[in-house]
Amino acid sequence: MTATKAKILDAASDLFLEGGVRALSVRAISARAGQSTIGIYSHFQGKQGVLDALYIEGFERVGAAMAAAEGATPRARVMDAIRRYLDTAEAHEAHYRLIFGEATEGYTPSPEAETVGAEAFKGCVRVVSALLPADAPLRRRQDVAMQIWAMVHGYVSLKHHAVSGLVDMSDWKSRALDGIAVLVDAIAAKAATD
Q1: Which of 13, 24, 50, 108 is the most exposed place for a label (fewest CB within 10 A)?
Q2: Reported pTM
Q3: Is 2 left (phi over 0), alpha (psi -120 to 50) or beta?
């Protein structure tokens, strides 16, 4: 990605955090990025292209975080993937909020963007499948991935929303990892008895 494209996407991320999709006009993005509106159109074909680029970049970051997971055991790899996911969600809050549909009235991801999102979910399924028997059906692997992803997403959403003003969230990731570990252990224990 060129430095100009990165600058445009950084500006769009900042604007999105400030006001959602409504804050993202080509004019506002160009002003924040110090670029001409023509530059926005030439690099991204307008607002939809900027949003798609952020959406794709967001899911690519989530997917890469999970794919980079390490660990000597399936449980350790899953927990490392979750930790990396939480780190990514925190470091790239605007992307995360966009890919999970927060304040996205007026934006529908392109087919290409939806494909990247689907690939990220497949990556999640691959990571968590290690907790299950090798012959576990796809439906079971997807269900387990959804259970884990829903819990992880719940913690991230709580961090991003008003509850963070009601509860001390300074150690939210370690608390999230503790809670999610209970689910991971329960999934592994059930798989061992199936």
Answers
A1: 108
A2: 0.86
A3: beta
